[in-house]
Amino acid sequence: MNTMWSVHYAVLSRLAIGQTLMVNQLVDMEWKFGVTVGTSEIQKLGNIFLQLKLVIRKGNSTENVHMELTLPQFYNFLHEMERAKASMDCFS
């Protein structure tokens, strides 16, 4: 049994990941950078932000997810996406 598991581990892992990722699949992404030029809070002037629109496939339908991130939040998001991609690449 242990030998069979070790022989088929890679294939089973790829199949499991593939099934998991089909639940919510990123179909499209739109993004815009912006700079705050008018606000009642002086410390927020000149802040850079990013607006994201993610199109997620959920089964037979799609859902638009809108997010607005500060530049540090965007870099954290990007880092997490790169980590997720690296993890998925290990199984393919």
Automatic annotation (TrEMBL):
Residue ranges occupied by any COMM domain in the UniProt entry: 25-92
Keywords: Signal
Molecular-function GO term, any one: NF-kappaB binding
Spans through the membrane: none
InterPro entries xrefs: COMM, COMMD4/6/7/8
Pfam families per the UniProt record, alphabetical: COMM_domain
Signal peptide extent: 1-18
PROSITE patterns for the chain: COMM
GO biological process, one term: tumor necrosis factor-mediated signaling pathway
Keyword Thylakoid: no
Annotated protein name in UniProt: COMM domain-containing protein 7
Organism in which the protein naturally occurs: Osmerus mordax (Rainbow smelt)
Species classification: Eukaryota, Metazoa, Chordata, Craniata, Vertebrata
